Each structure stands twice: as C-alpha cells, then as structure tokens.
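In response to the reviewer comment on reproducibility (Comment 2.3), we provide here a single inverse folding case reported in full, input and output, so that an independent group could reproduce the run without further information from us. The structure tokens appear first.
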C-alpha cells in the first residue's frame, strides 16, 4: 500500500494556477486581483470562481458571505474567505484592508504516530531515526549526543504557496538537547542544531540514535493563513489604535492564534514577540507533541527564526531558536 502523501490537498490544483493565486495571497486586500483570479477560474469552468467573486461582493456590501461547500478548505483559507467572515463577525471591518494586507500563508503540520519502517527514507517526519547523508556526523553538545527532533523534505512542500521562499529540494533536519528532569526550558548556544542538506539522493536511515529516541510520526501538511500578534513589529500597521478592546477582539476572534507545528507565516507567541523587527522571519514552530513524546517547558514551543536575507540566501546555518511556554 503506497504511503499517504504528506501534502494531499494543495490549494492550487489547475495548470498555471499557482502564480495567479500567489498574486492574490500576496495582498488579500486587493479585490482587483481576486476578481481577475475569479475570472480565470470561471474561464476554466471551476466553481471556485463564482464563490470568490460572490464572497468579495458580499463582504464589501456588508452582507453575509456565501457557504464554502463548493471549495476545499485549504483554498478557502488562502484566498481569505474564512478571514473575511471573522472580520465581519468581529466588527473590525474598518480595519479589514489593513488586516488582510498583512496576512501570510503558512503550513500547519499534523503528526500521526507511525512506525519508522513505514515512513519512506527522506520523507518529512517527527523523530524516530534521522535520514542523513553519507559520513554526516551526529551532532553533540558538551560531549553528549543531541536528540533528533524532525526532518522536512522540501520537495514535498514545493507545491505550497507558503513555501515558495524555501528551496524546492533538500532536507531540513533538527536536533536538540532534551532533559525531562530539567524541564527543557534552557537552550544555551550549541544545544540545538538545524541542518540543511541540499542533496537527498544519498540519504540513508541511521541504524541507531545515540540519544534516547522519541516516537516517530508521519506529517501531513495543510495550507492556511497566519496573522501577526498584537505586540509584533506590525502593531502599528494593523491600525487597531489604543483601544484595548479592539486588540482583544483581534486576538481572540480574528487572528485565532493556536498551537501546533507550523512552517513559515507568523509565529503564534506564548510569552510575547520574538521577532523584534520586520526583517526577521518565522521559519518553523515545533510545539510540544504527545505523539512524538516531547514537551518544551510547561507545554511550550520551539520557534526557529531567520533573517529575511539569510532565508533568500539559504543560509540556514544562521537560524536562531527561542523557546516559550506558559
């Protein structure tokens, strides 16, 4: 039985659609781009075109948005229809264009406990045994081997609009210290490592893990939208002013910050902003995960961040990591 695809439902499914959809997602406040896209879909006899057109028209008229039954959830998310509905219900319509313009695509990652032997070599996964290039040395910290946390096959993610900023091939692998007795809330320099292996043709599964092995999990990815947190570098651009009630509504009803593994987009902070400036990008969040069997602090997350210039240059050796927990 063939393995279930890691990215089963990309938002762009028609030939040539990805570039048009990317223009729309690049600025969800641009109704003209949405309507051009709707025309294109209708020319291809795709019912999503009418749904998009009717959604734009209804929102601008202050009317109820049409039901989403004719379109897959990831596509609806990326073109912002559920976000329009949240803005409408939250009564933040005066700030709608500012919120829409800041939305960024992201990938959520659902883990399912799976025997390592059933996960193909080089596939995206949490824990188990890593797949490494020939002669790759196992990373250590203070003489002790680091624990393997995750690997992401970028070819599996290449159809995602969110991952257009990443290389379309290669493997990102992550290792870290882990000491349950110490709470896993302190990560000094060198206590974690992120590797980018451009060539995946000669990967081989490690025969053993020098550290204790967490449970292996296959990953399934889904496209979504993310928004900046209230105390992020984009606070002023959101246009919510000094009224705390506006920020409460934005946080609770519109942005919908949650938990889980996530690639790109904005981070969902637990303790406060970690970016500091607009040129720092969120690369990855690894949440505490019962399936894999790890916890960061008191149910926290590991956030991996990278400067925009380093992301474009594929300088993943310059990624920094921060842990936050409740």
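Designed residues, in position order:
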């Amino acid at each position: 039985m063939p393995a279930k695809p890691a990215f089963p439902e990309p938002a762009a499914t028609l030939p040539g659609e990805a570039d048009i959809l990317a223009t729309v997602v690049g600025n969800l406040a641009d109704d003209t781009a949405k309507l051009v896209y709707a025309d294109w879909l209708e020319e291809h006899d795709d019912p999503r075109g009418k749904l998009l057109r009717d959604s734009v028209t209804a929102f601008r008229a202050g009317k109820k948005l049409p039901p989403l039954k004719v379109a897959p959830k990831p596509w609806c998310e990326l073109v912002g229809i559920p976000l329009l509905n949240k803005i409408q219900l939250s009564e933040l319509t005066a700030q709608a264009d500012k919120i829409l313009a800041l939305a960024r695509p992201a990938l959520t990652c659902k883990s399912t406990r799976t025997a390592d032997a059933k996960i193909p070599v080089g596939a995206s996964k949490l824990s188990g045994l890593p797949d490494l290039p020939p002669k790759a040395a196992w990373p250590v910290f203070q003489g002790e081997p680091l624990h393997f946390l995750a690997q992401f096959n970028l070819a599996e993610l290449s159809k995602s609009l969110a991952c257009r900023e990443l290389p379309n091939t290669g493997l990102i692998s992550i290792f870290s210290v882990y000491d349950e007795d110490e709470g896993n809330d302190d990560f000094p320099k060198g206590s974690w490592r992120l590797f980018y292996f451009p060539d995946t043709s000669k990967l081989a599964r490690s025969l053993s893990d020098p550290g204790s092995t967490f449970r292996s999990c296959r990953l399934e990815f889904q496209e979504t939208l993310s928004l900046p947190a209230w105390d992020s570098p984009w606070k002023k651009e959101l246009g919510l002013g000094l009224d705390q009630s506006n920020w409460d509504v934005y946080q609770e009803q519109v942005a919908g910050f949650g938990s889980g593994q996530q690639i790109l987009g904005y981070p969902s902070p637990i303790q406060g902003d970690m970016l500091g400036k607009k040129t720092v990008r969120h690369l990855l969040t690894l949440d505490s995960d019962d399936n894999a069997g790890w916890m960061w602090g008191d149910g926290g997350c590991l956030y991996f961040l990278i400067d925009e210039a380093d992301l474009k240059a594929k300088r993943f050796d310059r990624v920094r990591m921060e842990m936050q927990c409740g």
